[in-house]
């Protein structure tokens, strides 16, 4: 990773796109899962358009994996200089005495989005400790002053305290919760997705506003464009399903801004309602994937 981080970002992106192209053409589960998600979530696209989006998204995912070395290991000032534009920057302004919850889905360069957020002021970032590279991840995310809060009860207390101080809190909102408590099924592109209630609980407890922010990778290695989007109404609702639905609707809005940069291979629909067919199963050939999707819709 240190060697990759020394390369120009243009070379890193070409290497990543090449790896993604190989994954897109070689039958494998990542390729299958991406197509299943795209076919289920974006049924308005023709099958040919779904296949094209799958290819482009895997190329973008390859870029994401390769550029992580650059984003983690280069000096923070150099990484932040890749930001060419911030749309909706006014939404990052905190209300007096109130913190701000900033949700960054897995779109484009989410590590850059987190680094930019921490550069705006005191920030606590919710993160899942990793088996590998955990020290590197923590060091990279903390190098602009962010406080890291692990996905534990203690970490949640850190988030609450940060919001009560009027700080920023950064959360990746599109991960599937592991525990039954604190999550409900809510529609995600009209598919039932097991969805966290943490954002709702934090907003209701602290009165903090909620926005979405993600970093879109620009063409021709021109840098990144940050998007800040107001969270949909209802995200702080007392009704759990209404709140989770609003959360997913915000993620959908982000995804549709640059759908090829969303992490489509992620098993977002792995947890299923009782009696529903499993999504990520079966052969990896495209024709079989489409047949399985038709069964899921029946």
UniProtKB/TrEMBL annotation:
| Location, primary (coarse class) | membrane
Q: Does the keyword Kinase apply?
A: no
Q: Which domain of life is it from?
A: Bacteria
Q: Name one GO molecular function term.
A: acyltransferase activity
Gene Ontology biological process terms from the UniProt entry: glycolipid biosynthetic process
CDD domains to which the protein is assigned, alphabetical = LPLAT_LABLAT-like
Q: Does the keyword Transport apply?
A: no
Q: Which InterPro entries match?
A: LipA_acyltrans (IPR004960)
Q: Which UniProt keywords apply?
A: Acyltransferase, Cell inner membrane, Cell membrane, Membrane, Transferase
One Pfam family, short name please? Lip_A_acyltrans
**A GO cellular component entry from the record:** plasma membrane
Q: Where does it reside? A: Cell inner membrane
Can you name this protein?
Lysophospholipid acyltransferase family protein
Give the taxonomic lineage as stored in the record: Bacteria, Pseudomonadati, Pseudomonadota, Gammaproteobacteria, Chromatiales
């Amino acid at each position: 990773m240190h060697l990759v981080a020394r390369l120009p970002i243009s070379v890193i992106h070409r290497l990543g796109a090449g790896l993604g192209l190989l994954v897109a053409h070689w039958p494998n589960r990542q390729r299958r899962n991406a197509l299943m998600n795209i076919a289920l979530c974006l049924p308005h696209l023709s099958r040919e358009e779904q296949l094209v989006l799958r290819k482009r998204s895997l190329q973008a995912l390859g870029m994401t994996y390769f550029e992580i070395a650059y984003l983690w290991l280069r000096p923070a000032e150099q990484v932040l200089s890749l930001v060419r534009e911030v749309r909706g920057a006014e939404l990052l302004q905190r209300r007096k005495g109130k913190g701000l919850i900033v949700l960054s889905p897995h779109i484009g360069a989410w590590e850059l989005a987190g680094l930019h957020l921490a550069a705006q002021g005191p920030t606590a970032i919710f993160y899942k400790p990793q088996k590998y590279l955990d020290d590197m991840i923590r060091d990279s995310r903390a190098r602009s002053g962010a406080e890291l809060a692990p996905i534990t009860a203690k970490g949640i207390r850190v988030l609450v305290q940060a919001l009560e101080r009027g700080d920023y809190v950064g959360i990746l909102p599109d991960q599937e919760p592991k525990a039954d408590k604190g999550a409900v099924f809510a529609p995600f592109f009209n598919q039932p997705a097991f969805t966290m209630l943490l954002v709702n609980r934090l907003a209701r407890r602290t009165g903090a506003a909620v926005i979405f922010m993600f970093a879109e990778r620009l063409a021709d290695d021109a840098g990144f464009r940050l998007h800040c989007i107001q969270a949909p109404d209802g995200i702080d609702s007392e009704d759990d399903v209404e709140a989770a639905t609003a959360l997913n609707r915000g993620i959908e809005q982000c995804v549709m801004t640059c759908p090829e940069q969303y992490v489509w291979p992620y098993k977002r629909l792995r947890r299923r309602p009782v009696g529903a067919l499993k999504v990520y199963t079966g052969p990896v050939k495209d024709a079989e994937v489409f047949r399985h999707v038709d069964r899921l819709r029946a």
